[in-house]
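Minutes, structural biology subgroup

Action item carried over from last meeting: produce the structure token record for DUF1272 domain-containing protein (Alteripontixanthobacter maritimus). EB confirmed the sequence was re-checked against the source entry. Recorded below for completeness.
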Amino acid sequence: MLAMHPDCERCGADLSAAVSGAFICSFECTFCASCAEKLDDRCPNCGGELMDRPTRTGDALENYPASTTRKFTR
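Output recorded by EB:
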């Protein structure tokens, strides 16, 4: 199951699990749409392709909440 990280690793922007606009690689590195575009849809950590992260809403989000651990570091 995806951890659904709550922020962009590059700029720190909030990324809600219930809203589209987040991009992930196969290792779940997470970026906002703006950063993914600047990175040419390539993960700077592993070189993998950044893809649209699915959303999690309703009962699924309630039963399986998104991670609260932020990944952005300055």
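Discussion: The radius of gyration is 12 Å.
Next step: EB to file the record with the rest of the batch.
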